[in-house]
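COMPLEX REQUEST
Ligand: zinc ion
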Amino acid sequence: MSPVAVQELVLAVAVSGTVALMAWRAGSLSRSGAAAALILGTVCLTAGRAWGGFLVLWFIAASLASKVGQRAKEAATGDVVAKGGRRDALQVLANGGVYAATALVAVVRPEFEAVAAALGAAALVAAGADTLATETGTLAKGRPWSLRTGGVVPTGSSGAVSVPGSAGMVLASVGFALSAHWVGLLPASAVASVTLAGIAGAVVDTIVGAWWQARRWCPSCERETEQHRHRCGTTTIPYRGVSWLGNDAVNLLCTVAGAAVMGALLRSGGS
Ligand SMILES: [Zn+2]
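STATUS: Structure written out below.
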């Protein structure tokens, strides 16, 4: 490694480590989540400042969105959602893994950087759109309905849709795609297609969440939940959906779908 490369790597570790440590102290990441963020952040910063900058911006926006009205949201969803506000390593990888993979492609094969950046940005925009949809939908008053049954469901349920949640999803896609351009990761001409791909990924997340995501049942409370151990202390039993298709797998699928739709748009655009 050249001295410049070593310097860049040390800087990447220092910046990622600082962000991960701050996020852990602020309660946004668990210990394993902070370790995963350190590795992911280092990979992305090695690809360049634009790659690292977009990841950091994304992460700050997603963490802030989770923090806003956290108590009210936990009260509304504490019965249902599998994990709380602290993101663990699996959650970090589910959201940022595809983006880090495209950053690695940009490092190893710089001639593919433009395509890798478009695919990676679409993956992260999809994850951000899904996160913001959940956060705005949960914070807003009024009950969401299930995409599958059309019936009203508890706030925080996977596959649930609401008007504020959908508005949050679209606005977040626009905002995240614009910020990817702002940090220099995307040309202005790619912002519209990355926005569309991000929305598509979040829609796939909702559809898979509604039809196939694993649901569990608490026999004591006689309530549906995504928790393995319900907050009452009872171990829950598989109830419906694909048992291994948990929230992290669905989130990963959301980012893969965002990148795949972006790939299709690039091909149809001939670029
Ligand atoms: Zn229970």
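REMARKS: The pocket of zinc ion is lined by residues 218, 220-221, 230, 232, 234 (CB under 6 Å). The CA atoms of residues 77 and 155 lie 6 Å apart.
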